[in-house]
Amino acid sequence: xxxxxxxxxxxxxxxxxxxxxxxxxxxxxxxxxxxxxxxxxxxxxxxxxxxxxxxxxxxxxxxxxxxxxxxxxxxxxxxxxxxxxxxxxxxxxxxxxxxxxxxxxxxxxxxxxxxxxxxxxxxxxxxxxxxxxxxxxxxxxxxxxxxxxxxxxxxxxxxxxxxxxxxxxxxxxxxxxxxxxxxxxxxxxxxxxxxxxxxxxxxxxxxxxxxxxxxxxxxxxxxxxxxxxxxxxxxxxxxxxxxxxxxxx
Length: 249
What we know:
It is built from 10 helices and 9 strands. With 249 residues, the protein is of the alpha/beta class.
């Protein structure tokens, strides 16, 4: 994995194109480290995959039943439940930070986004897909469950019934359907991905930084707040904005 910083924009690239950016525990540890190292100057994080796929999911080596395979399913399955859950908690930390206060995350998705790859795209606030992209959550069909923060974000985006159907069947969701059901922010030709992501990032960073962050926080909290709590959050945020604009207390 590699990172590149351009002003307020940090780009994180999965860089195993020969393996379709298949993920390992090292991937998740590296992602978590990026999240832990963010400074206040970062406003947008772009997550992308090198080559022809965003991420084809777990590296096949992790499916080994051999308990000696570090981070493999065999090793996890033989751990006491509490220890296995703590290990998975660490893996989840590589995904959950992508909705941290202060940043907006954008997934630039081409080709396959399967399993852990789909969950990485779902972990981001926004997703730009190429026309050939497809997302799939096949964990249940393999005797597993999505465990990298994917279920909560999927239900937020598409609702309970559709999320349940997608997770239980593991079927591919193409770019056109993803846009229709709210998974994709935009769908573009393959050769237009960079330009589309660049335009979106430029639009996000054009707004004053504090107003942008307050607005993002409000939209995120609206998913779970009751109307009265959300109304109060809007009032408090606007009071802060007005005071800042006029130099008040």
